[in-house]
Design brief:
With about 290 residues, this protein is mostly helical. It has 14 helices and four strands. The protein has two domains: about 5-70, no CATH class; about 85-290, Up-down Bundle (Rhomboid-like fold), CATH 1.20.1540. The protein has helices at about 5-10, 50-55, 60-70, 85-100, 105-110, 120, 130-135, 140-160, 165-185, 195-210, 215-230, 240-260, 265-280, 285-290, and strands at about 40, 45, 110-115, 190. The strands form two sheets. It has a two-stranded antiparallel ribbon. Strands 3-4 form a two-stranded antiparallel sheet.
Length: about 290
Amino acid sequence: MTNPEFASNRDNFCYRHPDRQSFVLCQRCLRTICPECQTQAAVGVVCPECMAEQRQSASPAQKKAQRRWRGSGSVAVAGGKPVVTYTIMAVTAAVFVLQFLLGDVVRNALGFYAGALYPQLTGGSFEPWRLLTAALVHSSFWHVGLNMLALWMIGRNLEPVLGRARFLVLYLLGALGGSVAVSLLAPNSFVVGASGAIFGLFGAFVIIARHIGAEITGILIVLGINLAIGFLPGVAISWQAHVGGLVAGAVVGLVFARTRERRRRPLQIGLLVGWTAVLVLLLLIPPVIYA
């Protein structure tokens, strides 16, 4: 079900399938298209009509090149598939295999701890990439398995709605938000795992679903249980990363939901850049508090 405001805005639905909601636009005509109507282009996706026009206007040399690429399987990515989700899962799995082979070397090199951002306090080196790379390393098979299962369950539904670029931005800002919260609330912790990024997806999913009037009771129950687990005594889970990722993702979801119209695309980009700047500026607080 959807609320009247959402249902009355046809920009929120595929122009070929009016009953299917989507946040993805054809990169040529800027009409809304659902996953079934999306065809991957060099940049973004295009609708069936624009793809047909593009093929008709292609030169003989371009047509030959397209046949060659299609034959090699290098462009065998159907529009609408959660390619970013699968790619993140593959990269994370590859890093976990390296952890298995190399032991704690990978974990210690990529995991996040606040001291890596403040060498003036710890005497160490400045390693800001850990803010994001911590999402690639995990403490156990169950840790990486559950996180990737959650990513697959949310990503296959959310990525086709948002589009690949927006979904990737959401995932990265969720990971960043989790690390920022750890720096602010638990600066002495060493954390690993994609939980911050996963909770970022949860946060955005709830906001977007609420915006379109969807039933989210089940999602909220699952989210509440997962948040509560992090506060149980004796459980070695960084609730700070969960909360930070959730807040960061919820803000990104709100930006996406409120800047859906094509004319608001510059505003959307500006707000995302601004929110990223806010998260980075928050990292200036720990040296003042804990110096």
